[in-house]
Amino acid sequence: RISKGFDISLNAVVVKLNGTSLATLRLSPLVLRAQYAGLYYPNDAVDPDLDLIHAVTAWGGGGAAGAGAGIKVGIIDSGIDQDHDCFDDLGDSDGSNNFTNNKVIIAKVFNMRAKVAGYTPEAIDSHGTHVAGTVAFDYGTTAVVEGVTIPHTISGVAPAALLGNYNVFPGAEASARSEDILNALEAAYADGMDVVNMSLDRKSTR
C-alpha cells in the first residue's frame, strides 16, 4: 500500500509492505529500485574532507592531538586572521596585539609600499585565513555559515601545527611582485618555517 509519494526531490513512493517481500516488490516493471527506509542521525564525525585525502590515516596512533605538532608552516598569502574561530581560542602569545597568538606565531608584511601606505600583516582579505585553516584549523572546531550550523566539526590537515603569516597582499593590494614573494620566502626560511604554502596564480606582465 502506497502511503506517500514524492515528485520534487526524487520520483519515489513510500510503501507499506504488509507482509510482501522487498524482492517481490522489485519484480514490478514500474520499480527501478526498492529499499527499506533508513534512519539518519546528526553527523558529529570528524571533518569528512580529511578522509578524502587520508589525513586521519596519516595521523596514525597519535591522533589529531599531535598531528603536525612541532611543525611550523608559513602561509604566503593575504594574511591570517588570528582572531578567527579556528585560531582565537589560543590567545595572544605576548599581549602586544601584533596579529599573532599562540597558533599564529609570526606575522609580517611584504610590499614595496608597506611603510608609506601603513600596511600591516592584518588579514583584510579572507583567502589567507582560508588556506591557513585548511592547513592547521584547530581540531574539532564547530562552525556556523550564514546562520546554518555545519553538521560536523572541522579540523585542519595538521591541527597541531604552528603558523607563520607572511602577507604579500596587504590592505587592498590585489597583486604581489615576485620580489615581495621572494622576500617572504627568505623570511620564512630565516624564521624556521618547515613548510611554506603559496596558493597563488601567476599572470604574465609581458
Strand order of the largest sheet: 4-7-3-8
Order of helices and strands: EEHHHEEHHEEEHE
- What is the averaged pLDDT score? 86
Q: What separation lies between the terminal Cα atoms?
A: 71 Å
What structural keywords apply?
17% strand, 6 helices, alpha/beta, 206 residues, 8 strands, elongated
Describe the protein's topology.
Elements: E1 2-6, E2 12-15, H1 22-26, H2 48-52, H3 55-59, E3 72-77, E4 104-109, H4 114-117, H5 127-136, E5 144-145, E6 148-149, E7 162-167, H6 178-190, E8 195-197
Parallel strand pairs: 3-7, 3-8, 4-7
Antiparallel strand pairs: 1-2, 5-6
Tell me what you see in this structure:
A hairpin with a 5-residue loop joins strand 1 (2-6) and strand 2 (12-15). The strands form 3 sheets. A 4-stranded parallel β-sheet has the order 4-7-3-8, with helices on both faces. Strands 1-2 form a two-stranded antiparallel ribbon. The relative contact order is 0.19. By secondary structure, the protein is of the alpha/beta class. It is built from 6 helices and 8 strands. It is elongated and about 80 Å long. It has helices at residues 22-26, 48-52, 55-59, 114-117, 127-136, 178-190, and strands at 2-6, 12-15, 72-77, 104-109, 144-145, 148-149, 162-167, 195-197.
